[in-house]
């Protein structure tokens, strides 16, 4: 990371120096020198027991991203601030998390700090002078009630609001699923447990305290929800599409089975989807009702029942149809627990002796993929054939990839990297690759809304990667997988960079995915989220042809010529015009003019709701 020089008054870029930081339970020490040769010289250290606050910094001040600060007391009890810039938000959050854990018991911790920096003799945040009290409430929970002696008292009326609003408040959440901890420092959860959040600085793993048992530890943040939010109810599906709701309810075949989801067309509006077999003159089907709100803010489905909250309204309709096609009945099978980002807050190296390896699932670019189990968890294990990838670089990168978590991405759980061949351990999906699935189910899929749903699921996973500024580089139906209830997940994201194979890596190579490549990739190997969008268009074409090879038997040079002359794939027989027009947008020759994944997702929702 880089560190700002502490004795310079001005803010020039040269005041920032690259340093090698080492954190021990007692000290944060920084070194200069050559990382490769290992000759490093200590340039300074902060004793952790003197730390008063560990916080982010308002980035405008330094015109740098990902800056955080360590406020600490000198021996003379004077306050100093060390500013450090990490290379990514993720790296910064990790440091914040580790530092906070080590200083959490400090007597001298403050509830207040300066969000800005001290420039031209004043704090940029509150415009106060050198000795003015800190103005901003810290962003994490500190467990002491009174200010310990010898540290600055916060000003009684902080500039931006009354004191009560600024005090770090207690956050209480409810567990949605059972979770069995597997790593030291992690904590198991039972559904409906109430927990206080102690540290939410890591995105996917929060430190919590069980309110009843007082146990403390890390647990997956996606397994809990704010108390009082709809998310804690089994029947609430969040952003699921109309089609997802239909698949789920039709599979259950329970009279009156229902879910509530956010309306795809109107934000802030909810839709109730109900299954019924007994509708007059009709086959079993799912009906959708908007949950309306009257002027007093009461929710209602029919004019017979109005309630101040949605859970109450649902409860009343469970007793009585009151205008709906049937009485509501909870579906028996609750939501399945989602994947976690890795297998523990601090665990990502997996001991191969704990893996129970089972049948072979297939083989690909890197070697064999096998089904396996880690305890009760189903996993897929990629055994990386030696010499097929730059392993060290991949292992570094996988730490970042593990932090990517979305319902439409194949979750990376961890690696076995201590011996060769290395294993990559991911979530297991029971129906295998999307390409084979399309080919095997051609009859039932064509002419069905299921294909549109597949495309929008892939698009949702890609929208997440786009937001995280992560480029896939090899998006195609063969790299997506299909799970139970026809969920689709995108896999192999980013792996292409670590392949050691000239046939794969250059656009002239035999294994290079030419048929999915955008013009700027063919010409300059210029990858971006927009080149992923091009590949997504080709993937849509694969879906709508149930797994045909794009450009048929054309050979690579002919494909390149065709793409460069501006011609694109033809409209598949069963593909409606509005869907084909999305594909055509994806194949806009100029990368910058292509739509983003979030724009495409909105188009899908509009089509699905027609
Ligand atoms: P590679 O990336 O090395 O080319 P693939 O990812 O294509 O290998 O995997 C080869 C085959 O293994 C796939 O076609 C699929 O059938 C199966 N497979 C891979 N990952 C999984 C998984 N997570 N769950 C289920 N099957 C998988
Ligand atoms: Mg693959």
TrEMBL record:
Residue span of region Disordered: 145-165
Q: Does the keyword Transferase apply?
A: yes
The EC number on file is: 2.7.10.2
Q: Which residues form the PH domain?
A: 1-104
The chain positions of domain Protein kinase read 355-605
Q: Which residues cross the membrane?
A: none
Question: Is Kinase given among the entry's keywords?
Answer: yes
CC annotations in GO: cytoplasm
Where does the chain bind ATP?
Answer: 382
What's its top-level EC category?
Answer: transferase
Reaction(s) catalysed (UniProt annotation) = L-tyrosyl-[protein] + ATP = O-phospho-L-tyrosyl-[protein] + ADP + H(+)
PROSITE patterns on file: PH_DOMAIN (PS50003), PROTEIN_KINASE_ATP (PS00107), PROTEIN_KINASE_DOM (PS50011), PROTEIN_KINASE_TYR (PS00109), SH2 (PS50001), SH3 (PS50002)
List keywords of the entry alphabetically.
Answer: ATP-binding, Kinase, Nucleotide-binding, Phosphoprotein, SH2 domain, SH3 domain, Transferase, Tyrosine-protein kinase
One Pfam family this sequence matches: PH
The chain positions of domain SH2 read 235-332
- Check the record and name the InterPro entries matching this protein: Kinase-like_dom_sf, Non-receptor_tyrosine_kinases, PH-like_dom_sf, PH_domain, Prot_kinase_dom, Protein_kinase_ATP_BS, Ser-Thr/Tyr_kinase_cat_dom, SH2
The family assignment reads:
Belongs to the protein kinase superfamily. Tyr protein kinase family.
Any idea what this protein is called?
Tyrosine-protein kinase
- State the organism named in the record: Scylla paramamosain
Q: What is the lineage of its organism?
A: Eukaryota, Metazoa, Ecdysozoa, Arthropoda, Crustacea
């Amino acid at each position: 990371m880089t560190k700002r020089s502490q004795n310079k008054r001005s803010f020039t870029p040269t005041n920032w120096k690259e340093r090698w930081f080492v954190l021990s339970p007692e000290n944060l020490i920084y070194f200069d020198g050559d990382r490769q040769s290992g000759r490093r010289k200590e340039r300074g250290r902060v004793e952790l027991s003197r730390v008063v606050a560990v916080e982010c910094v308002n980035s405008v001040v330094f015109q740098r991203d990902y800056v955080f600060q360590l406020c600490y007391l000198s021996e003379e009890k004077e306050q100093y601030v060390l500013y450090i810039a990490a290379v990514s938000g993720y790296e910064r959050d990790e440091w914040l998390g580790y530092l906070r854990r080590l200083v959490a018991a400090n007597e001298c911790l403050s509830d207040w700090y300066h969000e800005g920096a001290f420039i031209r003799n004043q704090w940029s945040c509150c415009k106060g002078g050198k000795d003015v009290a800190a103005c901003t409430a810290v962003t994490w929970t500190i467990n002491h009630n009174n200010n310990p002696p010898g540290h600055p008292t916060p000003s009684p009326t902080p500039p931006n609001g009354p004191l009560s609003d600024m005090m770090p408040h207690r956050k209480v959440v409810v567990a949605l699923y059972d979770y069995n901890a597997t790593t030291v420092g992690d904590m198991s959860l039972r559904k409906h447990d109430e927990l206080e959040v102690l540290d939410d600085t890591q995105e996917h793993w929060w430190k919590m305290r069980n309110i009843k048992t007082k146990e403390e530890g890390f647990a997956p943040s996606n397994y809990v929800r704010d108390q009082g939010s709809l998310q804690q109810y089994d029947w609430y599906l969040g952003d699921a599409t109309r089609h997802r709701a239909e698949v789920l309810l039709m599979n259950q075949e329970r009279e009156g089975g229902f879910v509530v989801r956010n309306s795809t067309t109107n934000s802030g509006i909810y839709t109730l989807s109900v299954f019924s077999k007994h509708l007059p003159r009709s086959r079993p089907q799912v009906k959708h009702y908007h949950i309306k709100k009257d002027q007093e803010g009461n929710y209602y489905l029919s004019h017979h029942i109005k309630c101040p909250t949605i859970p109450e309204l649902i409860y009343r309709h469970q007793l009585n149809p009151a205008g709906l096609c049937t009485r509501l009945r909870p579906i028996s099978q609750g939501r399945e627990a989602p994947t976690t980002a890795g297998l523990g807050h601090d665990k990502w190296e997996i001991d191969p002796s704990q893996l129970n390896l089972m049948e072979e699932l297939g083989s690909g670019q890197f070697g064999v993929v096998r089904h396996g189990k880690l305890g009760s968890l189903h996993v897929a294990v990629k055994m990386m054939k030696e010499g097929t990838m730059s392993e060290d670089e991949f292992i570094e990168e996988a730490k970042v990839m593990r932090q990517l978590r979305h319902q439409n991405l194949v979750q990376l759980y961890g690696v076995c990297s201590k011996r060769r061949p290395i294993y990559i351990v991911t979530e297991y999906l029971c129906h295998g690759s999307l390409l084979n699935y399309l080919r095997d189910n051609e009859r039932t899929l064509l002419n069905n809304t299921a294909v549109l749903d597949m495309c929008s699921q892939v698009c949702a996973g890609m929208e997440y990667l786009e937001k995280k500024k992560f480029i896939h580089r090899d998006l195609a139906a063969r790299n997506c997988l299909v799970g139970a209830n026809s969920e689709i997940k995108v896999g192999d994201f980013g792996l292409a960079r670590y392949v050691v194979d000239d046939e794969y890596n250059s656009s002239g190579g035999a294994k290079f995915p030419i048929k999915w490549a955008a013009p700027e990739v063919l010409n300059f190997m210029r990858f971006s989220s927009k080149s992923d969008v091009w590949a997504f268009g080709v993937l849509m074409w694969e879906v709508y042809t149930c797994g045909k090879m794009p450009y048929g038997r054309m050979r690579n040079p002919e494909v390149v010529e065709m793409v460069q002359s501006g011609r694109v794939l033809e409209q598949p027989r069963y593909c409606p015009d509005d869907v084909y027009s999305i594909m055509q947008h994806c194949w806009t020759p100029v990368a910058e003019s292509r739509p983003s994944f979030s724009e495409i997702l909105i188009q899908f929702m509009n089509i699905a709701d027609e």
